[in-house]
Structures
1.
Amino acid sequence: MNSIDRLRKIFLRSLESDFSEPEWNRQPDSLYAPQRYILGIGGKRLRPILALMAAESMGRNALEALPVAHAVERFHNFSLIHDDIMDEAPIRRGKSTVHENWGLNTGILSGDALMVMAYKSLLKAPKSMIHDLFETFNQTALEVCEGQQMDMDFESLDRIEEGQYLNMIRNKTAVLIGCSLQMGSLIAGASKEVSKSLFNFGIELGISFQIHDDLLDAFGTLETFGKQIGGDIRSQKKTLLWIHFSNHQPETLKSIINSGSKNKVKEILYAMESTGSRAYVEAQRKKHFDSAITSLHNVKRNNCDTKDLESLANWIFDREV
Amino acid sequence: MNSIDRLRKIFLRSLESDFSEPEWNRQPDSLYAPQRYILGIGGKRLRPILALMAAESMGRNALEALPVAHAVERFHNFSLIHDDIMDEAPIRRGKSTVHENWGLNTGILSGDALMVMAYKSLLKAPKSMIHDLFETFNQTALEVCEGQQMDMDFESLDRIEEGQYLNMIRNKTAVLIGCSLQMGSLIAGASKEVSKSLFNFGIELGISFQIHDDLLDAFGTLETFGKQIGGDIRSQKKTLLWIHFSNHQPETLKSIINSGSKNKVKEILYAMESTGSRAYVEAQRKKHFDSAITSLHNVKRNNCDTKDLESLANWIFDREV
């Protein structure tokens, strides 16, 4: 079994055993059932795996990083509950979303409680580390909110620059990935320098990850990606691909949109390909991935074992789903 | 100037000076403006005053408790933003609510960020106290969410027992008042025993405070209370008064509701008075107030100066608004 699967198993076992603890069986159950539900319906478990792997890269037992692993997974799921409300999304990971099942109010409130549960998990770390961990976590939590707000603000803007978009996904997606690595290494005794390099590794990996997601939505195959291809194009979502194409080929875009064609999505995708937008965005994805690997080499120079982290980065880079 | 006004002034001065700090001027402003707005539109500032006063009762400078004072005020205002969404309330403290001004999504998100800002303020406490403060705060934050969920769950129940109601207001209202006192004293070096007695004082005071609120809504005068009297009765809100009356006089209540009368609210209020429900609830308010004062005497026996806290309790007990 590879390390990714091994660490996922460790995390899932811990999650399941947690669910039978008093902490997860408080009253009213109507507040806690939605939290257990969203934590239980899966996902790649990327963030907790990264936290555990960062601890192992310091030569320590992954179990030491469990307080961090649960904190980042809880925070991530809090943000999913609230994001799904904001996006009016009925489905998440193939299941109905929390607000769809329990209504808006319980969606808001169980999300709030799940954020507190994240802080609660982090407080299980050794006392001497609490201050540094909370400082990192607070900063990350704020930046995630800022990223989500920027994303919403973008909806009403006519033109967005690439730099704005990259800043938005850095906050909305990448910082929590960086924070998972940083806190996972801190709790395992990493120096500030090493933990900062791991944070940077996570940031660049996270940006590459999000750009990849946008590319898969446009050019993935339905079979492997599991949702309708071109959904972002159809809703004119401002991904890096859309931003590059609309900023560089405004006339082409306008003429396709104003045409009577029934195949607009396909025509836009074709134009994105033929005018070089796809290649540009692919190159950006590669650039941030390479930058992530460079940060990882800084960590390696400090006598940390970064083999598994590099495998995981490659797995993320090569994924088709 | 009495201590309440003096401490409110200290808090408000600190709040205003904070607003010009980088912490309150991050981007996007669309996320931070709603937070500054709700923190700025007033209220009694009861929780931060209690935190500062608790520190003074330990013989320390109130300023030492500012990290706690801001944390509890931020958390309280986070809960107001989200509660107003759940209650679909357009007005708060005579001004339009956050979601009314900025929409649902920014309401959810700026509330989330304000909760993080509460944790951020608490982290400014001396390092040696962080663990205890966060433990207290996490527990309180969860109980506030639990109380709000109970309150929502009550809406769909036919009959609620007094014990359930008291448990709900303990969580929704009283624990944050208790927590303000507990953390304000902890940061000023109080022992666990003293800080726990102050917590209990706050719990009982908070329960008495909430029962008082319900009584004022029913029997206050429009002039002093500032909102329409009998609003809770009109919406059949399950206050202690309503619960006692409907559990003890179900037939009387039914006959008024089913009558064609245009003065149902007045008739219910009259019946609550004549059947003893009002007197019962007034006695409950007094009972919890007396219990609060008893807890305060425990604190006094530990050489703390509880004079101001007792004045504040009396001010709360005697208020007409």
Note: DSSP finds 16 helices and two strands in chain B.
2.
Amino acid sequence: MRLSIALFDGFTALDIVGGYEVLANVPGMEVEFVASARGIVAADTRRLGLVAYRSFAEVLDTDILYVPGGPGVVPALTDDELLVWLRTVHATTTWTVGICNGVALLAAAGTMKGRVVTTNWSWRERVASYGATVLPVRYHRDGKIVTSAGVSASIDAALSLAASIAGESVAATIRLGIEYYPDPPGGAGSADDAPGDAKALIKAFEETVAPARLAGVQPPFACR
Amino acid sequence: MRLSIALFDGFTALDIVGGYEVLANVPGMEVEFVASARGIVAADTRRLGLVAYRSFAEVLDTDILYVPGGPGVVPALTDDELLVWLRTVHATTTWTVGICNGVALLAAAGTMKGRVVTTNWSWRERVASYGATVLPVRYHRDGKIVTSAGVSASIDAALSLAASIAGESVAATIRLGIEYYPDPPGGAGSADDAPGDAKALIKAFEETVAPARLAGVQPPFACR
């Protein structure tokens, strides 16, 4: 089975690596990182670079299309080359996975109308504006479409998908392999329980700091 | 504050990105990826490449030294250049972070004798053999040394460290930013509760499949 992870400038690394670390360990999985061109793609922090070794033109179909989120989603929402690629490849998949506000990218590509999905807590209205029904849950499956809440929820969504693909026992073994028995400081809860001032800080970060960094900070490595 | 993340061939990506995604968002943090030479370093799957843009020779001190684990730890345990670098930089840090069996690397570098630490469930005896006391917990702090259990525990350990550095409120805001309200399929628990056959599968993977892949599978990108 082939897992194609889409990279675009300004992705959030944990959106990718949370799900990758689970799905890459499903027996028989072949993983590839795909971007508009081969080369290094910079994360939202401008300090982490991941390597794409297939271009969009080289990947016309796949088994699992995996779309992360991040501050780079905002400019990517008007990137026609990316949106056309997502739409084209999605039509060929067995599974399509949207993480965080990467769900908005899939929606902008026209793949989410009438679908039931989840997304990052701060992107629910935006994703709903594309005609999707958005649930305030950590992950959700609607047919072949698996979506997750923000960033770290990629781990939970991928474990659920691993169970769908290879069975509960394989998923439980992968869980042991990544020792995923979380014990977050602060205990259980959800984004909806977070204090209003923390939500306001994150919103302000997403609306001002993150875009300014994307536009203005040069990565310390050469990007394609 | 400066966060220096050590890369070596065959790291496990989530060991790095789990903690990076938390610590990079601590206000004022400067992140750098460091390896024996600048360039792309391949993860244990041989399918994910991360960019190092500082060499060991360029980094003589730091505030936070961050050491991930992975199948690459086994060959790295006899890599004198890496061990000397870890020992030298550790002597200058405010915090030293060991994730998963990366704790064994720090121990082999001579930094863990008499310390109380944790590590990946399958590496406890090995780490203890270097003179550390190993606790079966998700993360632990002993003085300036913060250690975590396997892979995904890097998130919990880093949130705890973020609270030590910048306060509980900042850590809680970062937690919201990465939407870390885990809901793993299978519910709560720990590696110690996992079925014996799952443990045997992971041990076999670590002892045979992962080393064979490291030695025999060429990454689809050029490494340094």
Note: Chain B touches chain A through 65 residues (CB under 8 Å).
